[in-house]
Amino acid sequence: MREGTEKLEDRLRLGERQGLESLCHFKQCEDLKVKYNEEMIKRKKLFNEVQEAKGNIRVFCRCRPLNKAEISAGCSTVVDFDAAKDGCLGILATGSSKKSFRFDRVYTPKDDQVDVFADASSMVISVLDGYNVCIFAYGQTGTGKTFTMEGTELNRGVNYRTLELLFEVSKQRSDTFSYDISVSVLEVYNEQIRDLLATGPTSKRLEIKQASEGSHHVPGVVEAKVENIKEVWDVLQAGSNARAVGSNNVNEHSSRSHCMLSIMVKAKNLLNGECTKSKLWLVDLAGSERLAKTDVQGERLKEAQNINRSLSALGDVISALAAKSSHIPYRNSKLTHLLQDSLGGDAKTLMFVQISPSDQDLGETLSSLNFATRARGVELGPVKKQVDTSELQKTKAMVGF
Ligand SMILES: Nc1ncnc2c1ncn2[C@@H]1O[C@H](COP(=O)(O)OP(=O)(O)OP(=O)(O)O)[C@@H](O)[C@H]1O
């Protein structure tokens, strides 16, 4: 009898434990369901934002503050931010006339790096969903292109924040997706491509090739696989240092070359085996100001001609896209040829047009704003994922489809 009671008690304890376990399991399922629904709402929001972004080149305009030299020289501000919240910007041209411009966003000198990146983040994340993306900063020297893209150690810019966000989102999605992220850092100077991550002597000329599936790449360029944000910082620093090594005057040199960070993403959907390959370009362009022909000669003249040529080529590509021309002249410069997959077609493009507030820079400011206005009119093609079908076929074969 006593033995029977003990057995009964054991069975009750076992039943209680199993009951608790299934309750826990139920609770876990409920938590997962909530998490799943939250994730789906987030994805839908992102999808809507990306859909909204399709169909044109988005243009964000950012104006830096007047600098110390300008203040002590008594320069005045020609930019009117009264309607900046609505994407409108006024430029007080000569006399009392005012010229108005409209962009997707307008940032005043008071807006910080966090404000700027918040608006770019949905486009950045879409690279994890298989879209090609290009974000570039355009403008006169000294207007803050490098500040927006690279930032400073204490005030990091779009490049670092992009990778930080990509790691964060890929971690959140680790139940359903696996991601491989690698990074290349290139510089285009005088129409020559330089690999800023290459170590040792690099006498080899780097050229752009088209792969069989149509995408463009530079054979031989270092693609550094990055697993976490610490590694990213090291890679970005290595690129930045290499840029400095190649020149006597870093700032001078940086205004005369295009610095291009390429982030390659290979994604695998763990549920259906679908694989995508996509690329995100983050580009700090050379200064867009036109130098008077009489002011420059020798090496400086060659630099200026190459910058003019490549920025004109960028303008021509944008115009051809706007005109829905059957031929888009990507190959007229190294810059546009490199960006080919991420400019036009089914890619998403974001341009930061950087301006100075100073009356001394009025001419260059108007020229940059006109360039950006033309770019904003460009309609791109339908949104399509860069599905890597070879990987999909491999996975399907493995699971016996
Ligand atoms: N929004 C901003 N807020 C505060 N300082 C800024 C801002 N934008 C630019 N600056 C400062 O202005 C100076 C010039 O900026 P930066 O070097 O980024 O210009 P740039 O357009 O990249 O020039 P370059 O073409 O010569 O490379 C830097 O000292 C930078 O810190």
TrEMBL record:
<dbReference type="InterPro" id="IPR027417">
    <property type="entry name" value="P-loop_NTPase"/>
</dbReference>
<dbReference type="InterPro" id="IPR019821">
    <property type="entry name" value="Kinesin_motor_CS"/>
</dbReference>
<keyword id="KW-0493">Microtubule</keyword>
<feature type="domain" description="Kinesin motor">
    <location>
        <begin position="56"/>
        <end position="378"/>
    </location>
</feature>
<feature type="binding site">
    <location>
        <begin position="139"/>
        <end position="146"/>
    </location>
    <ligand>
        <name>ATP</name>
    </ligand>
</feature>
<keyword id="KW-0505">Motor protein</keyword>
<dbReference type="InterPro" id="IPR001752">
    <property type="entry name" value="Kinesin_motor_dom"/>
</dbReference>
<dbReference type="InterPro" id="IPR036961">
    <property type="entry name" value="Kinesin_motor_dom_sf"/>
</dbReference>
<dbReference type="InterPro" id="IPR027640">
    <property type="entry name" value="Kinesin-like_fam"/>
</dbReference>
<dbReference type="Pfam" id="PF00225">
    <property type="entry name" value="Kinesin"/>
</dbReference>
<keyword id="KW-0547">Nucleotide-binding</keyword>
<protein>
    <recommendedName>
        <fullName>Kinesin-like protein</fullName>
    </recommendedName>
</protein>
<keyword id="KW-0067">ATP-binding</keyword>
<comment type="similarity">
    <text>Belongs to the TRAFAC class myosin-kinesin ATPase superfamily. Kinesin family.</text>
</comment>
